Amino acid sequence: MAVSNPTTASAQIKCVCDAIVVYPADNIPCSFALCIQDPLGNINCETIKPGNPIKIKCVNGGTVSIKDCNGNLVTINEGCTYNIAVGVGCCIDVCLAYDENKCIVIKVAQSARKCKCL
User: Fold this and answer.
1) Confidence band (pLDDT; 50, 70, 90) for 10?
2) Residue 105 carries which DSSP code?
3) Would you give the distance in Å from CA 79 to the centre of its chain?
4) In angstroms, rounded to a whole number, what is the distance separating the alpha carbons of residues 35 and 105?
5) If you average pLDDT over residues 59-83, what whole number do you get?
6) Mean pLDDT score, 95-114
7) What is the value of pTM for the model shown?
């Protein structure tokens, strides 16, 4: 189970490219919200649908989060964050990395383990 604490400091993203590309796997059983928070605290969320890659504007010094099924923001740092419950029966693993051009790429897959909305 992923535990989110939006008050803890998180890794700020550095934008070399204008956009972050999100690649959600086809087998994720639901849509979910991916959010970018700018350094001033403004949050922009986009609905991500299974199998539909999407580009989101990159914000220097911002943070990337996934909205869980309780409406909490789970911060995504470089590497992978596992077992985020984003809906009933819908649990995802999210990995943030940089491609060869130093652009941010986020890959989302269905979690191997079950998790629950609490």
Assistant:
1) low
2) E
3) 11
4) 14
5) 95
6) 94
7) 0.87
**What are the tokens at 82?**
């596992």
Which single residue is written with the structure tokens 């009933």? 88
Q: Where are the domains of the chain?
A: 19-110
Q: What percent of the chain has pLDDT over 90?
A: 81
Select from 67, 24, 28 the least CA-distant residue to 44.
67
Calpha distance 63→76 (Å, rounded): 8
Architecture of domain 19-110: Sandwich (2.60)
Residue 74 per-residue DSSP state: E
**Strand stretches in 7-72, DSSP E:** 19-24, 32-37, 43-48, 54-57, 63-67
- Read off φ and ψ for residue 20, nearest 5 degrees: -100, 130
DSSP label at residue 85: E
